[in-house]
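Write out the 3D structure for:
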Amino acid sequence: MTFPNTVPHDSPPSDDDAADNKPHPLHRRLKSFVKRAGRTTDGQARAFAELGPLFLIPYKPEPLDLAAAFGGRTGPTVLEIGFGMGEATAHIATVLPETNFLCCEVHEPGVGALLKRIGEQSITNIRICAHDAVDVLDHMLQPGSLAGVHVFFPDPWHKKRHNKRRLIQPEFVKKLAGHLQPGGYIHCATDWQPYAEQMLEVLSAESLLRNTAEGYAPKPGYRPLTKFENRGLKLGHGVWDLVFQRA
């Protein structure tokens, strides 16, 4: 199954030296994703067919009426960028039922998995745009329209020469901050300490934001521990949360 109106996927760079000679990704075009392999299961395909018309929002380069997109529901809107298989997203939506969650993900099995969870758990406050979040921010969402942004466990791009491909960069953070309401927040989480340090540096440098903690934040109660995260913690791996607020 393929999505209409989605942008072409980027491929992660190879390990050879040719990858280092590519232009900086922000010079080509800022994007919020990389391609990941995966297969859509029969259950996910059924979720696309049955629930897609209700919960998928097609990308259109025009302002989105958020209240209409959520069936007339008014309330704060949180943008989630890259929800993986949707486990944490579904949990957060159930513990914050008064909040609307607009979720961007281009990984088809992940979108299918979240649609399946929506049906199984009767979740009504999620909408999915299977498109690059940068385009959604630039063309569909108005400045000052978001109560929050969630970016959980983005690709850490471990190799130093690939760090420039990380999502949390000054230009992108400025874009996110500009879409927040006064008092709105950005919540990032990562299990890679060098990336956590970069996130802290970049978020701290954005003049529109202030840190809600002295350094890293305690894990907010709404964010669950995933199976992957629990396994890592048992092995002694760290997890770092950062919560910054629009001044």
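DSSP finds nine helices and seven strands in the chain.
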